[in-house]
Amino acid sequence: MNVLILGGGQLARMLILAAAPLGIRCQVVDPAAESCAADLAPWHRMAWDEVLVRRDLLDWADVITYESESVPCALLTALATQHKVAPSAEALQLSGDRWHEKQWLSRLGVPVAPHRCIDSLADLQAATAELGFPCFLKWRQQGYDGKGQWRLNAHSDLASIWQAAQQRPSILEAGIAFTREVSLIASRRAGGELVCYPLTENRHQQGILIHSRPLADDPLQAAAEAHARRLMQAVDYVGTLAIEFFVVDEQLMANEVAPRVHNSGHWTIEGAETSQFANHLRAICDWPLGSTRLLAPTLMLNLIGQWPSEALTLAERGAHLHLYGKAPRPGRKVGHLTLRARSEGELMSHWLRLQPLLPRSEQPSSSE
Ligand code: ATP
Ligand code: MG
């Protein structure tokens, strides 16, 4: 099988790594000046629209997939007239715009935070009067890792934040006093075969994911799976998808949907029987999906801005280091570290010993 991946970041890199043992060949398209997937597969730097005239690439590909929400929906729609594209343009269109996403979730009965559509300062004033403070202004499109969103604490913030947001089409969301954040990763194949991973608890700092921890037997697992099934069936989704949730009063409230493999699923590489990357490829190639069983207590730590000494990190048994080949830069995800252990206690010992080496020192959440 030949897979053309639109987007050349670390998600593409890890898809390529998962593709190799399955005999799948990959090529990557990305207009950016650099691609950290380029070490592993041919990278074609071109404007998105140019893909449409690259007959060589399109004829080569058995299936086209994407790893970034910045791929234009119109490109996917145009490609899908003659090629197999998975997940579909519709999935990206619904989740790539926070307003459409909220409507989609609400229509299917998945609870979301109270929110309003914002096109002007007057809209923002009216919406904050209704939703109160704190609240979050988020661009409808193109935000990630906390970029393109602002927390508003008081009326005096409105004008300056509306300027900072460049007056772009946005939504305002009520601030949610969640007890924890979790995500569900699921993979679905055409025809309906669907597998879900154990719910994962996530901790963010300044809008950036810092660590993820799969939870065996979380009481909200069945509810999260029901939401994923409904969303995926509604658009005949093919591939891997992630839903981020806030947990409020022990109930799930969806924050956002990512129509792709997801950072909170990186632990699946060592922690699950089949990784989210392998299952994405199996789904888009229309092959049977693999078991999502959690193999052992696992914790994934993002490496943000810089990475620790390879030699010191790898001296810790149970530590699996993934570096993305990116230059260090503040706030940038340059790699991740997955810790796997025989028991929760051993996992925490690994973590405590590694902590002094890591760029930051926050404690993992939940029951350690
Ligand atoms: P990513 O791409 O990393 O998932 P993002 O830029 O798309 O992030 P969100 O997922 O919307 O942004 O928000 C990032 C984090 O900010 C959330 O995981 C949560 O911790 C916090 N946050 C966002 N919206 C709210 C809200 N309405 N109430 C409380 N906290 C929020
Ligand atoms: Mg998010």
From TrEMBL:
Originating species: Pseudaeromonas sharmana
UniProt feature coiled coil, ranges: none
EC main group: ligase
EC number: 6.3.4.18
Organism lineage string: Bacteria, Pseudomonadati, Pseudomonadota, Gammaproteobacteria, Aeromonadales
Keywords: ATP-binding, Ligase, Nucleotide-binding, Purine biosynthesis
Function field: Catalyzes the ATP-dependent conversion of 5-aminoimidazole ribonucleotide (AIR) and HCO(3)(-) to N5-carboxyaminoimidazole ribonucleotide (N5-CAIR). Catalyzes the ATP-dependent conversion of 5-aminoimidazole ribonucleotide (AIR) and HCO(3)- to N5-carboxyaminoimidazole ribonucleotide (N5-CAIR).
Protein family: Belongs to the PurK/PurT family.
Name assigned to this protein: N5-carboxyaminoimidazole ribonucleotide synthase
GO molecular function, one term: 5-(carboxyamino)imidazole ribonucleotide synthase activity
Catalytic activity: 5-amino-1-(5-phospho-beta-D-ribosyl)imidazole + hydrogencarbonate + ATP = 5-carboxyamino-1-(5-phospho-D-ribosyl)imidazole + ADP + phosphate + 2 H(+)
InterPro entries: ATP-grasp (IPR011761), ATP-grasp_carboxylate-amine (IPR003135), ATP_grasp_subdomain_1 (IPR013815), PreATP-grasp_dom_sf (IPR016185), PurK (IPR005875), PurK_C (IPR040686), PurT/PurK_preATP-grasp (IPR054350), Rudment_hybrid_motif (IPR011054)
Protein origin, superkingdom: Bacteria
Annotated gene: purK
Keyword Ligase: yes
Complexes and interactors: Homodimer.
Binding site for ATP: 98, 138, 143-149, 173-176, 181, 204, 255-256
Pfam families, sorted: ATP-grasp (PF02222), PurK_C (PF17769), RS_preATP-grasp-like (PF22660)
Domain ATP-grasp: 102-285
Pathway noted in the entry: Purine metabolism; IMP biosynthesis via de novo pathway; 5-amino-1-(5-phospho-D-ribosyl)imidazole-4-carboxylate from 5-amino-1-(5-phospho-D-ribosyl)imidazole (N5-CAIR route): step 1/2
